[in-house]
Design a protein that fits this description.
single chain, 428 residues, mainly alpha, Serine Threonine Protein Phosphatase 5, Tetratricopeptide repeat, 2 strands, 77% helix
């Protein structure tokens, strides 16, 4: 019996050793598979980052350079023909320039879907505009109304930064500061702002300064560093504005108008300086500056300045500024300065086409009330949903109100149908 027990014990031990050996081999194989997959995915990511080799032909580059020169001279349709010809042949530079034309409406009707499609094809190549292409894809997703568009935009901005397009760091900072498409993270926001500041981007310096000077969102104040950032930004902006950069002049105008980071001692002095810079930006053709200057002139003295302000707003709206179109629509609704309320719809529609959420909300109210247009709760809800998807809080609140009304009307209609059916049944 003892010998049998010993035999069984040895057999059991041998079985355990075999199982242990089997598990060890299995684990080793699994580890090899995991390591191999990791290497494969790293390789795929490397390939994605590297991109396909872009075709290089001196004659094509010369043609594209000529097309860009034509574009600057106003021969927009001719330049688009050249860009499209080479884009269809697989040249990423041509795809990039063609996408910009579709985005801005240069020689073709604006078409953001086509712009995005060409950019998505272009970023597959390793070429000089790859980072900027990724950046522009991110901007297009920012303009879209889908619920995840901001998250997708952040991913593209990170790719743009990875591909050395540093302007993307400014927008990444904004997304993390405001929690757009990502969880709000002020430390990450400042991290990205600092990257942009090191590259001399004045707006990033102002964004950073606003956080640490005002203690926005409860962030720890640092007045000394904030002042240095503001001085750096103003010096850089003034230099750019005096060299003919409209956006820099516009930013200076807004900075003095708001008076939060720069105070010249009185609101009047701030406004005078703001008007100077906004006027310069307007003269340089900036639609946003025209809008801001018009609004500021009305704020200062609407009786004296309203004619000049309306002229500026119209010029801005006709250049595609949605905010200016919305402001003009509201002026018509309120029948200010002798304007007719019926003229509001055309301006609101123009604002909607420009993607302005305020215009979407205002036009939704017009359709809901039914005084200036045929009453349509459905059209109103569609517009509010679009604005809500873009993060417009006032539209979200109004949308909930209109949806409740729609549900109530459906219930009332259903009860009437049931009552009618009952009456028919009783008669029969």
């Amino acid at each position: 019996m003892k010998e049998n027990h010993a035999g069984f014990g040895k057999a059991a031990m041998n079985k355990d050793k075999l199982l242990a050996k089997h598990y060890a081999i299995t684990i080793a194989i699994l580890l090899m598979v995991i390591v191999s997959l990791s290497i494969y995915f790293v390789y795929l990511q490397y390939q994605d980052n590297q991109g396909k080799s872009a075709p290089i032909v001196a004659e094509v580059k010369e043609q594209l350079d000529q097309a860009r020169a034509m574009q600057k001279q106003g021969a927009l349709e001719e330049s688009v023909d050249i860009f499209e010809h080479y884009a269809l042949q697989g040249y990423p530079d041509a795809m990039f320039f063609l996408a910009r034309a579709y985005e801005r409406g240069w020689g073709v009707p604006p078409d953001l879907d086509k712009a995005r499609s060409y950019l998505l094809n272009a970023v597959q190549y390793n070429f000089s505009y790859r980072g900027e292409s990724a950046f522009q894809i991110g901007r297009l997703f920012q303009k879209s109304a889908g619920p995840n568009c901001n998250t997708i935009a952040v991913d593209w901005f990170k790719k743009a930064l990875q591909w050395n397009y540093v302007k993307a760091s400014l927008l990444l900072g904004i997304h993390y500061e405001k929690g757009l498409g990502v969880e709000q993270n002020l430390n990450k926001a400042i991290f990205y702002y600092e990257i942009a500041v090191q590259e001399g981007i004045a707006i990033a310096a102002l964004k950073h300064a606003r956080l640490i000077v005002t203690g926005k969102y409860g962030y720890t104040k640092d007045l000394e560093y904030g002042e240095r950032l503001i001085s750096f930004a103003i010096e850089r902006l003034e230099k750019d504005a005096n060299n003919g950069k409209a956006s820099a002049a516009k930013t200076l105008g807004r900075l003095y108008r708001d008076g939060r980071l720069v105070n010249l001692g009185s609101k009047e002095k701030n406004n005078i300086t703001a008007i100077y810079w906004l006027q310069l930006a307007s003269d340089l053709g900036d639609a946003g500056a025209m809008h801001d200057l018009g609004r500021l002139l009305i704020f200062i003295d609407e009786i004296k300045n309203h004619k000049q302000a309306i002229a500026l707003l119209k010029k801005s709206a006709l250049k595609g500024h949605g905010g200016a179109a919305t402001t003009l629509g509201r002026m018509h609704i309120q029948q200010k300065y002798g304007l007719n309320s019926k003229g509001a719809i055309a301006w609101f529609e123009q604002g909607v086409n420009a993607g302005h959420t305020g215009a979407m909300k205002e036009l939704a109210i017009v359709y809901h009330d039914g005084e200036l247009a045929s009453k349509s709760l459905v059209k109103a809800i569609v517009l509010l949903q679009k604005a809500s998807n873009k993060g417009h809080s006032a539209s979200k609140r109004l949308l909930n109100k209109y949806l409740k009304k729609q549900r109530k009307l459906k219930k009332t209609k259903s009860k009437k149908v049931e009552q009618y059916d009952s009456e028919i049944a009783l008669k029969s």
